């Protein structure tokens, strides 16, 4: 009885609106899913695992919602209620999760609870709209039209999320903005189908809309409150890019960079990381005219390389253009790297490290790999035998490369997996022979004990490092001691990392989980 056509003269207008609403709610639903996946990867780590979990849970919840829709007697009022609830749950998802994480340090339980609720409500939409189309007298092709528009909306959302939503709104504002969108869809539906609307529905909708709009207007303040609780120091810059969340904090003379809420450097001790990363390989290399740096968009490694007068060119490849822009152009942050990114010898290339190495045939004397830890498969491929093979092809005859390799203490097996991977990489200048490696470590208070590995087709004899003047930490004596590993950090058995199997990810996650979870 509830699905009988409505005796309304504006059937065509209602049909068009329901199709338009299908498009809008499809966009909003997928945006919520992408926000949840991005949030989980930011706050829980391992982006591939988190995206897979979010997608699986969301689709399963949609299936439950589609099944539950059969118990909704009035499809039009059911659709409106679904939009109101989506506007509240989806709209306030990001603010609620960020505030929960800032206050309690955990986010998994509320994230998956809200994700399931959004999935169930989103799953109810298509069956309810299809039944509503029939109820307004649009019998012909109602289900096919609804599905087609729904898929187009999903496509638009998937393209808009990285290109428009994140760069211009950020996660907090995006969540609230699309919550407002759901509530506006509910509001226009209330007007068009007012004969099916109760006073309680209107009151709840109005309160929800006012709350969502107020939250959207106050979203910058919400971000500031969250950042204040998440970080010890004053937040001087925070920005969401298509690649990551960038946050810079400061307390007096101390500046720290966080990417996806993980610390990247602390200005008080970053020299204990960047000096060991750069100077051993630069001092050992017979020639260092042309240097390639992968990662290191903050310019600290470039600063150290520029200490050598015989350096002619430095090519810096970093994925996120905003990082290099900030540390090149910001009047205060550029001082941390001595304005190295503005040096005429520096060529900044923003893009994927693998693609750059694969497509660029240029040869370099020194390659410095300053990439994020291999905590995901996407990052692990940059620590694989195949990638190292590409790097060896880009080295000159006596060239050397170095990579940061994580902590030999907290993730011991991961560290030695990287060393073993380099050792087992094909030597392009001596077929059938392994590459040489030099493993060493440095204590960085912000990170703990940290490790590095130098490799190349021909390792020179270590006759002591000839270091430039003005270093804050590294000396020839410290270099010799850095190559000695205590019993709790010394070499252990570990598989080489390859594109076919990524044991490095498990080694890394298991190591850090053992200590900190």
What's the layout of helices and strands?
Layout: H1 11-44, H2 47-68, H3 75-89, H4 93-104, H5 108-135, H6 142-168, H7 170-192, H8 199-217, H9 219-230, E1 234-240, E2 245-251, E3 254-259, E4 262-266, H10 271-284, E5 290-295, H11 300-305, E6 313-318, H12 321-329, H13 333-336, E7 346-350, H14 353-359, E8 364-370, H15 377-380, H16 385-393, E9 395-404, H17 412-423, E10 436-444, E11 448-456, H18 476-482, H19 503-516
Parallel strand pairs: 5-6, 5-8, 6-7, 8-9
Antiparallel strand pairs: 1-2, 2-3, 3-4, 9-11, 10-11
Helix pairs in contact: 1-2, 1-4, 1-5, 1-6, 1-7, 2-5, 3-5, 3-7, 3-8, 4-7, 4-9, 5-6, 7-8, 17-19
Can you describe this structure in just a few lines?
The protein is of the alpha/beta class. Helices cover 54% and strands 15% of the residues.
Structure commentary:
There is one protein chain. This protein is α/β, with parallel strands linked by helices and 517 residues long. It has 19 helices and eleven strands. It has helices spanning 11-44, 47-68, 75-89, 93-104, 108-135, 142-168, 170-192, 199-217, 219-230, 271-284, 300-305, 321-329, 333-336, 353-359, 377-380, 385-393, 412-423, 476-482, 503-516; strands at residues 234-240, 245-251, 254-259, 262-266, 290-295, 313-318, 346-350, 364-370, 395-404, 436-444, 448-456. The strands form two sheets. The protein has a seven-stranded mixed sheet, sandwiched between helices. The longest helix is centred in the N-terminal third of the chain and has 34 residues, at 11-44. The radius of gyration is 28 Å and the shape is elongated. The termini are far apart.
């Amino acid at each position: 009885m509830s699905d009988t056509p409505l005796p309304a003269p504006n059937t065509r207008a209602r049909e068009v609106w329901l199709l338009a609403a299908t498009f809008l709610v499809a966009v909003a639903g997928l945006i919520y899913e992408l926000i949840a996946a991005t949030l989980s990867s930011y706050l829980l780590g391992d982006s591939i695992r988190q995206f897979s979990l979010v997608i699986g849970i969301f689709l399963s919840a949609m299936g439950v919602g589609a099944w539950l829709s059969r118990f909704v007697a009035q499809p039009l009022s059911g659709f409106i209620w679904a939009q109101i609830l989506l506007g509240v749950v989806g709209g306030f998802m990001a603010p609620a999760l960020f505030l929960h994480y800032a206050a309690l340090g955990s986010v998994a339980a509320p994230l998956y609870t809200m994700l399931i609720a959004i999935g169930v409500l989103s799953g109810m939409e298509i069956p309810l709209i299809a039944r509503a189309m029939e109820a307004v007298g649009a019998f012909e092709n109602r289900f096919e039209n609804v599905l087609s528009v729904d898929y187009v909306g999903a496509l638009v959302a998937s393209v808009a999320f990285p290109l428009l939503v994140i760069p211009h709104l950020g996660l907090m504002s995006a969540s609230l903005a699309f919550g407002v969108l759901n509530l506006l869809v509910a509001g226009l539906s209330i007007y068009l189908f007012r004969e099916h609307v109760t006073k309680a529905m209107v009151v709840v909708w109005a309160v929800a809309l006012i709350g969502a709009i107020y939250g959207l207007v106050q979203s910058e303040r919400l971000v500031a409150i969250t950042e204040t609780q998440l970080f010890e120091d004053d937040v001087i810059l925070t920005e969401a890019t298509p690649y990551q969340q960038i946050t810079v904090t400061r307390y007096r003379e101390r500046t720290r960079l966080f990417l996806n809420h993980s610390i990247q450097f602390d200005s008080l001790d970053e020299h204990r990381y960047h000096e060991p990363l750069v100077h051993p390989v630069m001092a050992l290399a017979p020639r260092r005219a042309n240097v390639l740096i992968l990662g290191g968009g903050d310019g600290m490694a470039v600063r150290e390389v520029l200490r050598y007068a015989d350096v002619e060119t430095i090519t810096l490849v970093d994925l996120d253009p905003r990082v290099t822009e900030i540390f090149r152009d910001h009047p205060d942050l550029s001082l941390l790297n001595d304005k190295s990114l503005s040096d005429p010898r520096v060529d900044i290339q923003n893009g994927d490290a693998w693609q750059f190495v694969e497509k660029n045939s240029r040869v370099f004397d020194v390659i410095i790999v300053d990439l994020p830890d291999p905590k995901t498969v996407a990052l692990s491929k940059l620590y694989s035998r195949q990638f190292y093979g590409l790097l060896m092809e880009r080295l000159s005859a006596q060239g050397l490369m170095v990579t940061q390799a994580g902590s030999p203490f907290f993730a011991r097996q991961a560290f030695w997996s990287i060393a073993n991977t380099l050792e087992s990489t094909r030597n392009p200048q001596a077929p059938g022979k392994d590459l040489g490696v030099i493993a060493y470590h440095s204590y960085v208070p912000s990170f703990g004990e940290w490790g590095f590995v130098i490799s190349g087709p021909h390792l020179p004899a270590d006759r002591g490092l000839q270091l430039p003047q003005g270093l804050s930490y590294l000396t020839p004596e410290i270099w010799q001691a850095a190559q000695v590993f205590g019993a709790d950090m010394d070499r252990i058995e570990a598989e080489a990392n390859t594109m076919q199997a990524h044991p490095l990810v498990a080694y890394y996650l298991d190591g850090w989980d053992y200590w900190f979870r």
